[in-house]
Amino acid sequence: MEKKVLLVECPDSKGLIAQITNICYKHQLNIIRNTEFVDPDSGVFFMRTQLEGIFNDQTLLWDLDHALPNGSKRQLIAQGKKRVVILVTKEAHCLGDILMKVYDGSLPLDIAAVVGNHPELQSLSEKFELPYHWVSHLHKSREQHEAELQQVIDSYQPDYLVLAKFMRVLSPAFVAAYKGRIINIHHSFLPAFIGANPYHQAHKRGVKIIGATAHFVTDDLDEGPIIKQLVTPVDHTYSASDMVKAGRDVEKNVLSKALQLVLEDRVFVCGNKTVIL
Amino acid sequence: MEKKVLLVECPDSKGLIAQITNICYKHQLNIIRNTEFVDPDSGVFFMRTQLEGIFNDQTLLWDLDHALPNGSKRQLIAQGKKRVVILVTKEAHCLGDILMKVYDGSLPLDIAAVVGNHPELQSLSEKFELPYHWVSHLHKSREQHEAELQQVIDSYQPDYLVLAKFMRVLSPAFVAAYKGRIINIHHSFLPAFIGANPYHQAHKRGVKIIGATAHFVTDDLDEGPIIKQLVTPVDHTYSASDMVKAGRDVEKNVLSKALQLVLEDRVFVCGNKTVIL
Amino acid sequence: MEKKVLLVECPDSKGLIAQITNICYKHQLNIIRNTEFVDPDSGVFFMRTQLEGIFNDQTLLWDLDHALPNGSKRQLIAQGKKRVVILVTKEAHCLGDILMKVYDGSLPLDIAAVVGNHPELQSLSEKFELPYHWVSHLHKSREQHEAELQQVIDSYQPDYLVLAKFMRVLSPAFVAAYKGRIINIHHSFLPAFIGANPYHQAHKRGVKIIGATAHFVTDDLDEGPIIKQLVTPVDHTYSASDMVKAGRDVEKNVLSKALQLVLEDRVFVCGNKTVIL
Amino acid sequence: MEKKVLLVECPDSKGLIAQITNICYKHQLNIIRNTEFVDPDSGVFFMRTQLEGIFNDQTLLWDLDHALPNGSKRQLIAQGKKRVVILVTKEAHCLGDILMKVYDGSLPLDIAAVVGNHPELQSLSEKFELPYHWVSHLHKSREQHEAELQQVIDSYQPDYLVLAKFMRVLSPAFVAAYKGRIINIHHSFLPAFIGANPYHQAHKRGVKIIGATAHFVTDDLDEGPIIKQLVTPVDHTYSASDMVKAGRDVEKNVLSKALQLVLEDRVFVCGNKTVIL
């Protein structure tokens, strides 16, 4: 018996759950878990169904396509590891946490390669037998640098790009090339402290809690759909660099939790938000 | 258009979601939200469906009864406030929080009466125009005291009893009379520190976090199905009585959150656990 | 034996702790707890010392004044309840939580009066035998309204003003009249969502955590020194009004925790931040 | 200018802070931070003073010894990395997190070696150029196994032993050999679920929060002084093995936070508790 996940996204109408689950029943598939949500603002219906049984993908999708309203999207996803390329700059903690979680089996991920605009993390990547590509941005236009990045990335055909403290702003063209497939960690509790040096901003403002945000990347810097946020308390004894250090655990934890959700096909994008089923 | 909640609990089998949602669809009812869970240990299927439409309860339940397997339980619950009797001893914070939340509309609850084995909370109850019954346990056997409590409680025909820091151990007979309908707050992070003086036990052990647990009451003291738990950090500067004080906010917050879940018909009991849909 | 708290704030220099604790020792006072902090940016030394013994305030302060550098501030505060006036608009939960905590002895506070720009909370205040002043802002200039508020407030000579969801922006003149003595609860995790309707902003942005902030009021709206922040997780199923409701517990908890800190004379203001000893 | 930490532990008496800080002042040392605590049960005074200046250790300690009451302990600790030996069994996450934190500079630790009773973590240790000693317990008495462990450990003369999911119960003799210097991570929120298979116990009990506890090891299994505890919420959808997985992040986070506290010389043992200054 196989396990697959069915994702459906369509305009809401009465009877959708009955129709979809009927088709699954007709196909003798067992529903292990089913979750759905209707976004009240857009009227979009989202459903995620974990199925178990013997699949005939073609007829199942055919049946669904005939039952669902126009404008529906549906996907039937076989179990298996997603393939990612990780982009980094110099900081090791987010990359390191992902490497360790893949190493000990906590994150069911296939890391195709690590790409950095600096050479610092080559050694760490190679400890885990991963190809590391140093694609420097120095003396290159953004276009040229991104073209080089894309060439390396595309050679691995990843499902997702993970920006694990990749400290470069990406152009709309680059973002468009991987639409909905770039996951970033921003080192603040968005929308507080957008932009550069969030911990210094937080220190200056005297906040008592700091945080980090994992989100999909869109054209607007730090404005994409939020997947996960975590926080940690701080106090007056924290310097800005103490906050940076305290933030590392939050950053790596929030990124790996967001990855976990994405890898389990639980994250839908709904306008500028996420629906997590 | 009315809103109702359908609760189903039955042995798991293939096609249950399809069957139930089909019946809803046949009745022209719109599913606002649907959640289900199969307990892998017992093989019991639980489902909670929020419905909207014009209800014909009798035919809907008839259809369900013919579709569901033997041994199924189903309930169709109209929106409306649950009726509770609150039992107290001397401490005001849990009662006070419920009174305030009912007062400001946060908890959709109908408090029928407050019953205390001490007179201390009469004045607070009466501020909120609630009948208060002082049923002292002094110079009475447990049986006699509980018989008096039952007489008062039953005169109000409550849906639930809420033990808001009611510091008396209840007999199996009493518990049986309100099976599955008594909600207690225990002032520890169960199963740590079962029994008396949990904060003193916690202080003695030098824990760095304390908590509180809202649970259904069963025959075994502090052993019933847990509905909700919350915690708060403490440190070496906390005396046992500082812990008592810090615990008050946790206790009141966990009790009102548990009540909220129960009032929304989201809590199923599954063996000695809860399933919260 | 009495207990008092000594607060010192002065330019940092070597030997300050020794000098101050020597003076306490010379006065045969026992130090129950001592905490200090030097702000590295401003070079200001803050110290809070809980003392026990027989106090001769005049000679103790004389000795301190001769030992401490120019520009020092020191205060010797006898134990006792602070006197507050609470300002409200229509929402009951923050006021109600303070009332309940004073009622059950959790907050050692003397509530002199409640002042509202609407009549809604009169009944609640009077349940707890508190004078309520309805000072409507309708058909009045801000100056006129604030003059009326001040007249009522000043008749009670409070130590602190507590804005318990008082939904009016205060003028610099009003703030100056109670400099460093106005505590506000802002219904967001500042500096995210400054200004109006923070929960609607948060909902629109799709955040996964919401929060509330207790702070001292300064001329800049929502920009004063932060005393305490708390957060609570939310998800895609929360409407803006669900967030409002979820936020109520956070708001009341953060406000009463901030009050607790202020009442224990633990909060120093350091530029636009707080130092909490 | 050097930085050192002075730790004092002695019977409480009036004037201790003044005496100690006077001596520091006399030695022209600047106090960067000073924290103290008197345990009300035992009457023991604890103080930690971060000092900066030019140190004459011998005369400073001589002065302290003459000022402090009989039975005092004092230590003057130069800045520098502590040396640890890490003991492991098969699980990689706690070891991996420490390795990564040392690698990226978050934990100022000198890992002398990793010792395992299984060979599984050799490869991981060697990625980070650390000696790994496989000391199997098979076909050996506990005494014999511990004698072999001690031989390996003592060859490195570590300051602390870190049990990073080392799944062997240690004998009193072994514990005594490293008194107060063994830090363990227990995979439950102690004192709940002492002993074996805590996640299975937690799952069976239906708790809504799980946790982990870092503590010093004493003769009584899982009963030593607690350094740090952390928790994470779970729900009915978690199987016991989901709890195991969710617990990993808590375990590694609590262990590295406890290590951080110990490395900064902030943890005193007071009876069966810790005082963290």
TrEMBL record, chains A, B, C, D:
Q: Gene3D superfamilies of this UniProt entry?
A: 3.30.70.260, Formyl transferase, N-terminal domain
Decide whether keyword Hydrolase is in the record.
yes
Major enzyme class = hydrolase
The entry's keywords: Hydrolase, One-carbon metabolism, Purine biosynthesis
State the family named in the UniProt similarity comment for this chain: Belongs to the PurU family.
What the protein does comes down to: Catalyzes the hydrolysis of 10-formyltetrahydrofolate (formyl-FH4) to formate and tetrahydrofolate (FH4).
Q: What is this protein called?
A: Formyltetrahydrofolate deformylase
A molecular function annotated in GO for this UniProt entry is:
formyltetrahydrofolate deformylase activity
Source organism superkingdom: Bacteria
Entry annotation: catalytic residues? D222
Q: In which pathway does it act?
A: Purine metabolism; IMP biosynthesis via de novo pathway; formate from 10-formyl-5,6,7,8-tetrahydrofolate: step 1/1
Q: Per UniProt, what is one Pfam family of this protein? A: Formyl_trans_N
Catalytically driven reaction(s): (6R)-10-formyltetrahydrofolate + H2O = (6S)-5,6,7,8-tetrahydrofolate + formate + H(+)
Species this chain originates from: Rheinheimera marina
Q: Entry's InterPro entries?
A: ACT-like_dom_sf, ACT_dom, Formyl-FH4-Hydrolase_C, Formyl_transf_N, Formyl_transf_N_sf, PurU, PurU_ACT
UniProt-listed PANTHER family: FORMYLTETRAHYDROFOLATE DEFORMYLASE, FORMYLTETRAHYDROFOLATE DEFORMYLASE 2, MITOCHONDRIAL
